[in-house]
Amino acid sequence: MTGRVEGKVVLVTGAANGIGRAAALVLAREGAKIVAADLQDERGEGLLRELRAGGCECEYTHHDVTREEDWQSVVAGIKARFGRLDVLVNNAGIGLSGAVVDMAFADWKRQVAVNLDGVFLGVKYSLPLMRASGGGSIINVSSIAGIKASPNVSGYCATKGGVRLFTKSVALECAAAKDGVRVNSLHPGITETAIWDTLIGTVEDGSNGGRERGPTLDKFTERAVPLGYKATPEDIANGILWLASDESRYVTGTELVIDGGRSI
Ligand code: NAI
């Protein structure tokens, strides 16, 4: 019995927590070799131990998605160790909230750097190795905030909307090049992770309350999400798995929405 992504070499950014961590574990369970990358080394090393305990061939690397030199070295490292790259999960992201007039320019730029520059750099530096590997799948984790606006989160919406159309443009480039690389965006809805600690006041009544994200976010979700409950990181990771696998071989330039109906 082989896994759904057996033997594929996968790079996951922002892998130490939340959705990235779940994606690394789900992909490993289905036979992938994992390169997990993040800023939070202690959490990353913990993930590595868990992956190894499950028999996964894997490594963890400290990696800031906003730094061009980090991308150059992580891709060079993958080439040296594995000789190929089949899947890139551009997952690292931050969410900062506040009314546009109150938002510090530095915070705007930090979101652009992580959420948009990071995705651009990931595609730019991974694509040559993926093409040399005979094809692959790039999964850019956007958000329903890249499709549907919410108040007090304009910077986040701008970056996630940018990821959505950047993805489609690159998908066309790859299709025209006939390089076998598929490029898709994935749009999670409300998924309880640490990102909600900084997305304060982004729900319509401004009451999600940051660190009280548990009960207050639950209440908001009941009202705002047709299915009435939040996603788990694994719900999102299952979509990443499908886009990473050859089951989605005819899928490129699409936007996979996993949001319990929130954006309908
Ligand atoms: P999280 O906060 O649990 O995980 C984000 C990870 O990204 C952390 O491990 C963090 O260390 C890492 N990271 C942050 N800046 C980085 C940088 N410069 N370089 C490398 N790594 C960096 O949050 P979550 O929810 O797991 O977020 C993953 C992705 O999912 C993000 O792109 C986020 O925007 C997106 N998303 C999340 C939703 C949610 O409700 N949790 C909804 C829609 C999208």
Automatic annotation (TrEMBL):
GO terms for molecular function: oxidoreductase activity. Coiled coil: none annotated. InterPro entries: NAD(P)-bd_dom_sf, Sc_DH/Rdtase_CS, SDR_fam. Keywords: Oxidoreductase. Pfam families: adh_short_C2. Belongs to the short-chain dehydrogenases/reductases (SDR) family. This is Dehydrogenase. It comes from Bradyrhizobium lablabi.
